[in-house]
Every structure is written in C-alpha cells, then in structure tokens.
Design a protein that fits this description.
heterodimer; A: about 160 residues; mainly alpha; Arp2/3 complex 21 kDa subunit ARPC3; B: about 300 residues; Thrombin, subunit H; 3 domains; six-stranded antiparallel β-barrel; six-stranded antiparallel barrel; 12 strands
C-alpha cells in the first residue's frame, strides 16, 4: 500500500514537473522529458505489464495536457516501457552504463518518432534534428541523474 | 521446434510462456490503441480527454499566470518606482501628442469614408478584437504561445493574433478555455507582405514579398524581384494574405542573408513583437456579427436583383 501511495505521489509529481517546470526550462523549444525518465525507471525495476500500462496512461495524460498530437507520447512511452523487458536476460538493467545507454537510445528514438510524425503531417519542427537531440540528451541525462539516481531510496520501487 | 520444446517442458515453463504472451499482447494492444488515437485525434489537436481537462486546468493555469504577473508587478513596482515617475511624465507628453494625432486621423477617416462612398466603394471590413492573456507555451516542438481564451469566447482556428507592436501569429488549435497560437517566427508560418515606409499598399514605393519563419533566423523575407531593402525598413502584411488583415506591422528589415545559391535574395526581418515579454494580445475574431449579417443581407439583395438585359 505504501509503495502504491509513493508511486501515485511520484506520478503526480512527474506530471506537475512536465506541465509546469518543463515549459519554463525550454531551450530552443526543447524541454526535459520527466515522464519518459520516470517510465524508463519503472520499466527497469517493475513488472513489464505494470510499466506498459503506466507508460500508456501517462502518455495519454501528457498528450492531453501539453497540446501534443493525441496518442504520440502514449506510443513512445509504451515502447519505452516494453523494450527494457526484452533485454532483461541479456543486460544488467541496474547498472548505470545500461541506464545511460537506454536514455540515449530512447531520447534518439523519441525525437526520431516526433520528427517522422511531423514529416508525415507536413509540419516543420522549430529546431533542427541534431539540436533537438543534443539539448534533449543534456536535459534527460541531467534530470535522470538528479531525480532518479541520487534519491533512489525515495522511489516507489526499490532497486533489486 | 519451440512448440515441441514447450510441449516437452513442465508447467513452470508453460507459465513463463503464457506470461510472455500476455506481455506481448498487452504491448500490441496498447500500441494499437495509441495508433487509433493518433489517427483519430492526432492532427486536429482536439481530443475528448484534453477537452475535459481543459475545463479544469486551463482556468487554473490562467489564475496561476495572473498571480505570477501580479507578484512580478509588485516586485517591479517597489524597485522601479522612481524610474516610473519619470516615465509617467514622458508618457503624459506623448499621450497629448497622440491625442492631437488621433483627432487629425479621425478627421481623415471621416474624409476617407465620404470619398469611398462617393466612389461607390465598400467600406473596410471591421475586425472584432478579443483581448487575451499569455498563460504559457504549447507542448509540441513548435514555436507557440498559449492564450486564456477558447471556443467559449468565440475563438476559432486560423484567426489572426496581434500584439500592441505588431503581428504575433495565428490560432493553431482551440479548446474550451484556451487556444494555442503559432508564432509567425515558426518555420511553419508564412505571410504575404509588402515593404514600404507607410502601411499603404497602394503607395508608390512598395516591394512585395513573402516573410516566413526560420528555425534560427527568426523571420526571413524573400522580396519579389530580388529588390534590396535598406536596414530598418518596415514590413507590413499584404492584402493577398488569406488569414491576416492588410497593413499589420510584421517587423523591420535587419540584414542581408548570405545564400549559397544567389537565385533569390533573402533578408532577415526583426520581428516587431518581443515574444519573451509578450503578456497581452488581441485575437481578431472576425467581422462584427451585426455588420456581418447586414453585409450578408446586402449580398443577398444584390443576388436577388434581376440582371439588366443587354441592349441590342
């Protein structure tokens, strides 16, 4: 019960950060993706179905709150929650190197999906692809370090 | 082979396999739902959940933004009280000068109306302006601003948005209590313009062109005929624009841009609006309702009249 409460608290906190803080930190229209980092963390340490449902629900909520195309973040976050499970038997998911590699991979993948979607609907993005990846990586690595490594004992799921 | 191994294995392996299947099915199901959502509501920026949340969260965001502005103003008022007194005197003098100019312009406006009537020209279409406050930014990788007026106030997609200094952009998406505005500096924006010393397209020295947003340069002007405009020259919206009314200040020519291929001259335009300090804007919601109805009635009457027969 306490884990659930803590998880709910984290979900609300992450949504608040994404809705309120992320637009303030936007640098050339690229902002940190707190929800992606949280879903990745849950995917690394929790049951895959739990992580996928959480990723999907958070994605839908973020799409509704932030005016992004409805369903795009849900698609990305569900994938983020599923991929670490595929590699569970081959990689040490709790190692820092693996987690950093996942952040790089998912930041690249997320930006690519957003860019492909923009291309499909005939929309240009405000910043070019390389700048978005560079700034996105900077934000995501920084906040993963701050939020999900340092205060690990306060997170809803304990490291195995 | 995998099936054979499964058949030979025990109940524990069977359970693992069924768990894997459940996970995979769950993944496929969620991805399918996401894709359906994306194809159904993705492009139009409108979805039932977003609409429902808009009713609760947009007024909250509006209230937060107002509180922030008020507290900011309070801090500013303490620190800049003396400076403001001096500025107030300046503004009083400027106000007096502007009043005189306004009286002159009202005189000219009356004359203009009389002359237009004399020549049988229709009067300029009036635009109804809806004041709105900037309460945030959008979530897409686009240059957008969020305003506190939505469908309930009569806002619709593609309505122009202007600031006190010039053109801001157009409405990209609307919800009940808020709307998202695409800035003219976004690469997806483009507007037909003319460059002239006065905002009159019919005056002699006019250079037509297109101003479009650019990812790094802000605004880029492509003048028709490759004409070179001097730095500081004002650029206004043209009457060929289907979205924006003519004569709105877009910005001023800042510098020539070096292009790899010298087929088309390009010049950087400094936007008239400072987007970082933008707080209040006007949404041009269209014709005034009564005037629109009367115009429609006039048009209907004209259509109902029988055409004169050509004389043999």
């Amino acid at each position: 019960m306490s884990v659930w409460r803590r998880e709910l608290g984290w979900i609300l906190g992450v949504i608040l950060l994404q809705w309120w803080l992320a637009p303030l930190l936007a640098w050339r229209e690229v902002r940190p993706d707190f929800v992606l980092l949280f879903v990745l963390y849950i995917a690394l340490y929790a049951e895959p179905v739990h992580a996928m449902v959480l990723g999907f629900a958070l994605g839908i909520l973020v799409d509704s709150l932030t005016w992004s195309p409805f369903g795009l973040n849900a698609l990305i976050l569900t994938t983020v929650a599923f991929v670490p499970h595929l590699l569970r038997s081959r990689l040490f998911l709790s190692s820092v190197a693996t987690q950093l590699a996942f952040i790089v991979f998912f930041t690249l993948g997320g930006t690519l999906i957003h860019s492909l979607y923009s291309l499909m609907v005939g929309q240009q993005t405000a910043t070019d692809f390389s700048t978005r990846i560079g700034i996105g990586l900077f934000w995501n690595l920084l906040f993963y370090g701050i939020l999900f490594r340092r205060w690990i004992k306060w997170l809803p799921i304990q490291e195995k | 082979m995998g099936v054979l191994r499964f058949r030979e294995s025990g109940p524990q392996d069977r359970q693992i396999l069924s768990e894997r299947r459940v996970r995979f099915l769950c993944f496929i199901l969620l991805i399918l739902i996401s894709l359906i959502c994306l194809s159904r509501w993705g492009v139009r920026h409108r979805n039932p959940l977003g609409e429902a949340l808009s009713f609760v969260l947009d007024p909250l965001q509006n209230a937060y933004s107002r509180w922030l502005q008020r507290s900011e103003a309070r801090v500013m008022s303490w620190s800049r009280l003396i400076e403001l007194q001096a500025k107030s005197e300046q503004l009083k003098a400027e106000n007096e000068r502007l009043r005189q100019q306004l009286a002159l312009l009202q005189n000219l406006d009356g004359e203009n109306r009389r002359l237009r009537r004399l020549h049988g020209l229709s009067s300029h279409l009036p635009w109804e302006a809806l004041p709105a406050e900037v309460i945030g930014k959008g979530g897409e990788p686009l240059q957008t601003i969020l305003l506190n007026q939505g469908t309930l106030a009569g806002v619709a997609v593609n309505q122009p948005v202007v600031g006190s200094r010039g053109l801001v952009g157009r409405v990209l998406a609307v919800r009940s209590h808020a709307c998202l505005v695409l800035r003219i500096t976004d690469p997806n924006s483009a507007v037909g313009v003319f460059a002239a010393e006065v905002p009159d397209e019919a005056s002699g020295e006019v250079v037509a062109g297109i101003v479009s947003g650019h990812a790094t340069q802000g605004l880029v002007l492509e003048p028709r005929g490759g004409a070179a405009l001097p730095t500081g020259y004002p650029v206004f919206t043209s009457s060929i624009s289907t979205i924006y009314p003519a004569g709105l200040l877009v910005g001023h020519v800042a510098e020539n841009l070096e292009t790899g291929y010298s087929l088309q001259r390009r010049q950087r335009v400094r936007s008239a609006v400072d987007f970082e300090r933008l707080r209040e804007v006007l949404i041009l919601t269209g014709l005034k309702r009564e005037q629109a109805l009367s115009l429609r009635a006039q048009a209907g009457a004209l259509l109902a009249e029988p055409e004169p027969r050509p004389t043999p």
